[in-house]
Amino acid sequence: MTARPAAMAKLPKKDRKALARELARIERERQERRRRRNRRLGWAGAGTAVVAAGVVAALAVQASVRAGQIGPLNMESDGIVLGGDGSAVTAGRTGALDPGDSPIATAVDRTSGVLDLVLYLDYRSPEAAAFWSANGAAVEEWVTAGYATLELHPLALADGADGAEGDYSLRAAGALACVADTAPDSALSVHDALLAAQPDLDEDGLDDDDLVALVQNAGVTDETVAGCVTSGSFTDWAREATDRAAQAVPFDVGAVTTSPVLLVGGQEYTGALDDPDALTAFIEQVSTQLADEAAAAEAAASPSPTASADPGATADPTP
């Protein structure tokens, strides 16, 4: 049996009953407040659980979307094609590569006199920076004048190689893809800026804020591009494009696993990367070869001339 409090035992019976009723009322109210508090906590806990479940579900959906994310617009070949009209460089427009699809090789007409240049590169690669430092100005002149097109394929090959830290190659390739997706005509300017920054990179490369600043300083101030860069919207695509290039590319080189790789009219340039004269000589060689092939194809397609009539023959007198 529970002992009564001493003060209560000294009260008259009538008062003790009144006090007991009052204490019981207070206890009931306390219990009711406790039950209400527990219900609120239960609701809050349930709400927290729902929110947590929602966050997990959202992250799962986001991961699923990213895993199956389409590629950037204007890079259906895994590269962006740039051409000129004599005064400015613009990008070719294409759709985006759907998840699981293979790149669609750019259609080229090598009888047109416009030479197609295709450049695979990693923006973390010192060799790529050296190549562009020696040859970039000339290539841009040819493209601007309309003598050649340039197809840029950003890759992520250097991350983790030779002690390289972080994922800068991946993020830089993704940054160019962000530009191609939203501001494609500025892709060449951003390409220039990424390679110009290469010699000064530390072991981790540029962070996302510095990448955004680089893109903006190159003339792309669209906030959509900045958000794309900082969120890494196309880093998954860049990884997949790198894997695809390592398996096969639509040219005779078979696969690309180094940076840079330049194809001129479908033929790989194997000369010195920092020798403009060697590159110019190779381009002239390929151009001459393609011109000869085009002339031969045109001659083969032309109808053979009919045998001329014998000038000494007389006309058939038959009416």
UniProtKB/TrEMBL annotation:
- Coiled coil regions, renumbered to chain: none
- Tell me yes or no: is Transmembrane among this UniProt entry's keywords: yes
Q: What Pfam families has UniProt attached to this entry?
A: Thioredoxin_4
Q: Where is the Thioredoxin-like fold domain?
A: 117-284
Give TM segment ranges: 41-61
Q: Where is this region: Disordered?
A: 293-319
The alphabetized UniProt keywords are: Membrane, Transmembrane, Transmembrane helix
Name the UniProt record assigns to this protein: Thioredoxin-like fold domain-containing protein
Organism this protein belongs to: Cellulomonas hominis
Taxonomically, what lineage is the organism? Answer: Bacteria, Bacillati, Actinomycetota, Actinomycetes, Micrococcales
